[in-house]
């Protein structure tokens, strides 16, 4: 599933190819995504251009003169740049053709992604207004996590994966950040000291930044905007390594389920 680094990688990969070029055609091949693609979307976009692309959590926000298009990649989606005459894949659901000769396509085999439109202030959109802090900014810090976690009995892994607390720390990167900061994933969030939250914030930022630099993590479906896979998989220390030796202490890594998600940790290094 595309997580924050994969979405950020997509943003960086497509921006130069689509910004400030008039949209000549919008082809909706299958409107049945997680929510139906708005019928009025082509009329809102044709002749206009995208002046800015931003990321909020795992949403991509395409700003035009009339409003904002929101795209979410869901479980298996990808956005890629192609030439307009490239044959369609079975799961290519929508295409945007630009005056500069580039085309942007959304491919989504499972159709859990979304393409939405709003002409209201984007910060007030129902899908965005309650989101937590962005992890790669100063919004995420030890003081914030320490304050929000007091008296919380929820496991720290679930706490940092709560999008109302901090956005974009998906399952892969939560596993990795907790290992790197030496925190047991099942420890109660309210029992963690501010000093340990400082280490956790540092590792969340470091690991997400490294994953972005590596083009994301390709486990199955994800391809970047240039059609290439991400290479952060080679950097994984615990995720997907149940039963293998810890690369720090050689202890066998264990797996538990937290909120129905696979959680791999080192019983020696994480306390």
Write structural notes for this entry.
38% of the residues are buried. Residues 218-231 have low confidence and may be disordered. Strand 6 and strand 7 (103-107) form a beta hairpin. This protein folds into two domains: 4-124, Alpha-Beta Barrel (N-terminal domain of MutM-like DNA repair proteins), CATH 3.20.190; 142-265, Helicase, Ruva Protein, domain 3. The two termini are 28 Å apart. The chain is α+β, with helices and mostly antiparallel strands and 271 residues long. The protein is elongated. It has six helices and ten strands. A four-stranded antiparallel sheet has the order 1-6-7-5. Strands 2-3-4-8 form a four-stranded antiparallel sheet, covered by helices on one side. A two-stranded antiparallel ribbon has the order 9-10.
Tally of contiguous helical segments: 6
- Please indicate the count of domains: 2
Helix content: 10-25%
Taking the alpha carbons of the first and last residues, their distance comes to 28 Å
Shape: elongated
CATH architecture of the largest domain: Orthogonal Bundle
In terms of DSSP E residues, the strand content is 15-25%
Order of helices and strands: HEHEEEEEEEHHHHEE
Major sheet size, sense and barrel closure: 4 strands, antiparallel
Rg for CA atoms: 20 Å
Taking pLDDT < 50 over at least 5 consecutive residues as the criterion, the unreliable ranges are 218-231
Give the secondary structure arrangement, pairings included.
Layout: H1 4-18, E1 23-28, H2 41-45, E2 52-56, E3 59-63, E4 68-72, E5 78-82, E6 92-98, E7 103-107, E8 114-118, H3 142-149, H4 156-160, H5 171-180, H6 194-213, E9 254-258, E10 261-265
Antiparallel strand pairs: 1-6, 2-3, 3-4, 4-8, 5-7, 6-7, 9-10
